[in-house]
Amino acid sequence: MNVAASVRHLQKRCINLPGENVSFHIYFWGAQPNHQDNPLHKHSFFEFCYVNSGTGLYYEDEQNYELKKGTFLCSRPGKLHRIHNGENLSLFWVGFEVNQSSSTKEGIHLFKQLAYTPKILIYHAEASPTAQLWNVLMEHAGRSYSSELLSSLGHSLLISLQTLFCGLDESEEIHNDDSSSQFLINRAQLFIKDNLTMPLSLEDVAQYLHVSKRHLSRLFSSHLKITYTAFLRKERVRAASVKLRETNLSIKDISDLYSFSSVHHFTRVFSEETNITPGQYRKLSRIRE
């Protein structure tokens, strides 16, 4: 990897990083294959470093911390710090601040958390997604990929760094739980619609999704405000309506196709859902044609 070229391209193409909830302004990207010492100093913004190889020391709050391969360090705004005693110390670094005018309160809050985190170093992180993402960004920058791609990767890296040091925000965990539930209910609906000619008990669908019957039942109630049985019934009637309109299948054949126990059962359910019988529905649909 040509780190000098990577940094040069990042400095030109990856400075203002917009995002849906949080946007960033980059002050600098950097990389040094043999970093030795720098003077005691502070910033008004965040600076992150990642150790690719070698050893050294990081000084902050009158304490020295060991630096070695796979270490991330977070220098927070206003903190006096320095890196010294470097031996073959290969580093990546980035200095940035949140663009508050184009960020939401939630996005700003994430990085306020970071400003006060007691965790300033993370060791043995070379296999972490964050380390891999930084390496991917540098590789792409070295090959002069588009500004759009580099900005997207750079933005993702800064979010990943915040999560690495602060963990997932509680509200984000709740959101992820909601997203997971929504994904499950979407899969359940699709499976039902694709298999209406099958018996489709609650147990069948729960088994397909690898969840309990109770959990699946709760998902229908909470997300769709309808019971599983009522949803299945509506979908069978909807599919039966299409067959009544578009085919010459007998009412009995349609009843059998969608697993109704009898023509009488089909007629009763169809009438409850549409306020007319299957025969009346077929006649009306053909008159309208």
Describe it.
This is AraC-like ligand binding domain-containing protein. Keywords: DNA-binding, Transcription, Transcription regulation. It comes from Alteribacillus bidgolensis. There is one protein chain. The chain is an alpha+beta fold and 289 residues long. The chain folds into two domains: 3-167, Jelly Rolls (Sandwich), CATH 2.60.120; 176-288, Orthogonal Bundle (Arc Repressor Mutant, subunit A). The protein is 52% helix and 20% strand. It has eleven helices and seven strands. Strands 1, 2, 3, 4, 5, 6 and 7 form a seven-stranded antiparallel β-sheet that branches. Strand 1 and strand 2 (24-35) form a beta hairpin. Helix 1 packs across helix 3 and helix 5 packs across helix 7. It is elongated, with a radius of gyration of 30 Å. The N and C termini lie far apart (68 Å). Mean pLDDT is 92; it is low at 170-176.
